[in-house]
Amino acid sequence: MKRPKLHFAAARTPEAKAAKSALIKRYGSVGAQQADVIVALGGDGLMLETLHTHLDRKKPIFGMNRGSVGFLMNEYRDEDDLIERLSKAATVKVSPLLMKAKTRHGRTRSALAINEVSLLRQTRQTAHVRVHVDGIERLNDLACDGILVSTPAGSTAYNLSAHGPIVPLGAGVLALTPICAFRPRRWRGALVPHDAEIEFTILDPEKRPVSATADFTEVRDVVSVSVAEDRNRACHMLFDPEHNLEARILKEQFTP
After folding, report:
1. Among all residues, which ones are annotated catalytic?
2. Could you tell me the pTM of the whole model?
3. What one-character DSSP code corresponds to residue 125?
4. Which portions of the chain are predicted below pLDDT 70?
5. All domains in the chain, ordered by first residue
């Protein structure tokens, strides 16, 4: 079996930098374009950054936790044979969300999200948002602090903190979750088909400005935002088979 060529990416923390140096000394390193596998060392933030950076290169990414939570990461074990771990790793394929946001100033900006697209009020004023799914109006006026659309991979992140549902991989749905909804009070969100197109229209955007964020790309003063799965792109994450992402998402549903 041909030994894979590796490229290492690390967070700026001392722990991540030390791990990168030790692994390069042991396994060597090539540029990202020449690599067969990219190894990310850090936390979930670094993993998301690495996925975004190399999305169009279609390189599989194996993360090892040198951060805090590390939900998207494998355990860091420098005593194990990394090449053997990679040969046994299971691949998880996730399509990102494509956000298209139009601002009050007539500009349109697009960005990709692997975790979620979120809309948030910019001032003390409550946001008022109209929601369409596949061209059908579902909510005429949602009064809230915000609303988000989450992928299954991101459903345990901001979406879970906003009391949204955890979505198993392969469920074929996206989570639509309000953030501190005031009206309608009893609406707690929805699950929509993964191929649905969701459109948000901001009501009274001058008095009640709203920003839209796709992972870490923020667009302020939006008047409308569309969100749909970009099926022409995909992230390929590698996980140890005994601790894969699907098992983690299932376990999270039973965590007190």
Report:
1. 44
2. 0.89
3. S
4. 1
5. 6-94+234-252 (3.40.50.10330), 97-229 (2.60.200.30)
